[in-house]
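Give me the fold.
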Amino acid sequence: MSDILPIPEYFDLGKLDQVWRVPYEERAVQAKDWALQHRLQPASLMGTKTRLMLIDVQNTFCIPGFELYVAGRSGTGAVDDNRRLCEFIYRNLGAITHITATMDTHLAMQIFHAIFLTDENGRHPAPYTNVSTGDVRSGKWKFNPALAGQFGITVEEGQERLKHYVSTLEERGKYDLTIWPYHAMLGGIGHALVSSVEEALFFHSIARLSPTDFEVKGDRSFTEHYSVIGPEVEKGPHGETLGEHNNKFVEMLKDVDRLVIAGQAKSHCVAWTIADLLSDLRQEDPALANKVYLLEDCTSPVVVPGADYTEQADTAFVRFAEAGMHLVKSTDDFL
């Protein structure tokens, strides 16, 4: 087990729900001093490798008032999660050798944004509208014909892709197509990591001489991409590529002793990433699931008016545990 380190004095609990500029130069000096004071080795010299994987810990999901704040049932879910997450990183700075941060990344014209669909009167669906196969077949919702030129396809091709997409989701037992508020927009402030978390990651990278690994996902037009490992639907009606499977995570897991996962939201991007990872592991080596640790107190489910995904998230995590993954809390002594 690793030594538990103190939390740096600069860490401010009162700023977890705010967006601010990280003072990089000051933190870099402090991180070097911290490494000397606590005899922290460069990550490359460690015999035991522990990678922390953070799923979409971005302002858009984690700051109250932003587009898709993950409040959970408590109403303060993501803010509380990130307090525990930052404390976990600082306390275990000597054990965590690598950190990966996924970045949900969106553009305006994507299949899960209102602009993509219209009804017979040209009106767009409201945020949080669920679009079923029946809705598309009946003509309740259609591909926005004004976007055909943008994608270099005909209106008929756009409608065919939409119909194929929602049908494939239904066949695979996935959530219906959800129209989300515009969020995690590339170039916008919502896309950035939560400032307190970014500060902790930067401090770790300097103290352990281990740069943070960033994984961008979610910028394909004709598919949702909850999981960083793969899109909800990979192929269109004629075999065209909508998104691609990312095989690097199984290889990454082979190279570490532990993979610790946290982030937002437990019911969506976290759950689907873990589910895809588990599916890959079952094909490669099911025993690798024993290397995976899920920080249950550093993730919350989506709870919005008319939709509470808490039970679905909890059920998924039970399934992951049954497959050999470990359900842990940030204060447990498992590193």
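The longest helix spans residues 266-284.
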